[in-house]
Amino acid sequence: MRAPLPRLHAVTDERIARRGDLDEVARELAASGGPDLALHARGRALTGLEHYELATRLAVYASARLFVNDRLDVALALNAAGVQLGVRSLPISAARRLDSAWWIGKSVHALADAETARAEGADYLVVGPVYATATHADRAPLGLEQLQVIARLGLPVIAIGGIGPGRARDVKTAGAYGVAAIRALWDVADPMDAARQMLEELQ
């Protein structure tokens, strides 16, 4: 039986993957979040080797769960707990054949996307951006009402986009199971405290 889906997802990007303090911040996040934290190895512009090396560095924290975005080969090689798929990723059915124990999530940006992902067999949805965010400055935020509509589909929803301490409680009230963040966890002075606060708001 697989472990529960983590409620807090710390997502990397190319910039974070190449930072000198990656290991230090990941260690602090893992210490604070434990099994309720997923460390996501993500970086669309990374080479296959860079993605593998990033995931390897995130996999050493036994208390947290390793999730890999897009690269199913890397997830297989490192026995990841889950994978997150995007529009250009392999189908959910292909991921399921590779490892039936994975938590398989799909990134969605609208209700129609969410309905399709549910029909295709996704285990959870990463929904966003809920609020305006520099990561997707060109994409209009969904807002809490649309998040609530998607959450009613019945799959666990991980909300992303402009969410940090102080907003995690609001998205939980709207129906989210958990939250994902990049800057709110990796770019703060005290990552341990940020993770602790967000998890407290998700209780």
Number of strand elements: 8
- In whole angstroms, the N-to-C terminal distance is 23 Å
List the helices and strands in order: EHHEHEHEHEHEHEHEHH
Strand content: 15-25%
Low-confidence stretches: none
Give Rg in angstroms: 15 Å
Structurally, the number of domains stands at 1
Which strand order does the major sheet show? 1-2-3-4-5-6-7-8
What's the architecture, going by CATH?
Answer: Alpha-Beta Barrel
Give the CATH level 1 class. Alpha Beta
Summarize the main sheet: 8 strands, parallel, barrel
CATH superfamily (homologous) name = Aldolase class I
Overall pLDDT metric? 96
Residues in helices, as a percent range: 25-40%
C-alpha geometry: globular
Which structural category do the helix and sheet elements fall into? alpha/beta
Please state the oligomeric state of the protein chains shown. single chain
- CATH topological fold name: TIM Barrel
If you had to describe this structure to a student in words, what would you say it looks like?
The protein is of the alpha/beta class and 203 residues long. The protein has one domain (8-201): Aldolase class I (TIM Barrel), CATH 3.20.20.70. It is 39% helix and 18% strand. It has an 8-stranded parallel barrel, surrounded by 6 helices. The radius of gyration is 15 Å and the shape is globular. The chain starts with 7 loop residues before the first strand and ends with a helix. The model has no long low-confidence stretch (mean pLDDT 96).
